[in-house]
Design goal:
The complex is a heterodimer.
Chain A lengths: L1 H23 L8 H29 L1 H14 L11 H4 L36
Helix pairs in contact in A: 1-2
Chain B lengths: L1 H20 L1 H35 L6 E7 L2 E3 L1 E2 L1 H7 L4 E14 L4 E7 L43 E4 L1 H7 L6 E5 L5 E9 L5 H4 L2 E4 L1 H8 L5 E2 L1 E6 L5 H11 L3 E5 H9 L7 H22 L4 H12 L4 H32 L7 H5 L16 H27 L3 H6 L4
Parallel strand pairs in B: 5-9, 6-8
Antiparallel strand pairs in B: 1-2, 1-11, 1-12, 3-10, 4-5, 4-11, 6-9, 7-8
Helix pairs in contact in B: 1-11, 2-9, 2-11, 2-13, 9-13, 11-13
Classes of the chains: A mainly alpha, B alpha+beta.
Amino acid sequence: MTKCKQITTFCCLLTLTSILKSNALGSQSLMRNSSLFFLSILSEAVLLGALLLHASFSETTQRGILEHKTMLVKNLRLTDLCLFTEARYTRHLSQADLNTAFQDHPLSLEHFPSGSFTEPNLHNDIP
Amino acid sequence: MTVWIEKQRYIIDFTISSLLRRKVKNIGLLALYTLIVFILASTMFFTYSIKKEAKLILQGSPEIVVQKIVAGRHDLFPVSYIDEIKAIRGVADVESRLWGYYYDSLVQANYTLLTPSKPIDESTSKARTTVVVDPHNPRAADVNKPLYDYDGAAPEAGTLIIGNGVARMREIGPGDYMPFMAFDGQIMNLKVASTLASESELVSSDLILVNGQDFRKLFGIDDKWITDVIVTVKNPSEIATVAGKIKKKLHDSRPIIRDEILRTYDSIFNWRGGMMIVVFSAAVLAFVIFAWDKASGLSAGERREIGILKAVGWETGDVIQMKFWEGAMVSLTAYFSGVILAYIHVFFTGSAVFEPALKGWSALYPNFALTPFVNAEQLTTLFFLTVVPYTVATIVPIWRAATIDPDSAMRHTGE
């Protein structure tokens, strides 16, 4: 954490000194390449920081919506997310029987694209 | 310190000028590098957020679902089994579920038809979000109104409640009629009573909530049968034991516990999955090519440049520093740009690039905005996967080139 701070301070220092220097040289002189580089990296870092702040605020603001979704799942006794509606075993992944993926004939390959995002739940905790 | 900083700045100035001399090559390299980071970061953000959201939402899923299996396939569940399950010690309640699929040939989409049970909680949404309402604004939101109008009660006979995906696809809303072809070929026209909120599309996009009588009439299911049952257990630590007892008592049943449901969504978009391994192997291959290009040696032009620099007084250390900055500049710019673009892509554009692959062959796909769950671990992993290997791969071959005699380096002319 301290190292991160040191690096950030170093980058800020470099950028600031370069900007000040280029200003001191007069308005006619162009900004140095190194100043431009540090300025761009700094602005990108600031933008990324702002996006991370957005993520943090969104988590707080969307908590209410998440709770409502959980309540809907509870009230309707739902078991799955509605991600892939193309086949019954991709719509309700947790409810699919374990042999569905290759059910059509013994050598058939999985033919729904969403099958490549998922894998069957083969573990069973039930004694 | 100031001298050192100034020296580094001059080296950076020179490095940028050197990079700009081979503008096309380096801009192409930067674009490709950014693209790789973008794909990796997008995949990371998307999978982590969807897994975390699934984990949070599905905490409300049933403790145990019991299906009946006949010849390896699901079958309708006999109502008579309910009493047998109720007799098992530790079982608090057994509720029946009526649900199934309906293929709409008009839009070639599959819907999930479900008969709601009684709501678990009378007040559907205890959770409240603090909203400051402007008293002078007539259009201000009513803070006491829940986000979802639907309270979990079953719709009246002859009516239905549709998910937002169905409403969008069929372009229908409350008051419209929706025709269904029953099992015996008869057409059933059901009136849309309301639609489920668009915020809940991740779980309800293709849902159609119907009355139990209409459901049985549509699919020709007798009162003696239901789709499956859900079991509530008195002591949550006994869920697996109760599920085991159900399996022992009803040999043709398949109990699915909540942990299994949660684990299914924890393994979704796993790196071992087909599409994910293609994405990751493409990224890894691209990195191998980068590293190979850098580690296999320098071009004659670069060697000559190093020779001239050494001839005019640069030391080996200075040359290495120059190449370090070259690698750091390219990789840092690519890293930041790639991560920022990935964040915008996943959380602002709804993963537009992944959408065609995610949609697959389904006609009905939910429009959902993921909650941005991003942590430092993801960003650090990405940093060590991308920036560090590239910077190291840039420095290593330079060490060899920077130690050779400037005269022999300059003699190798031509690129």
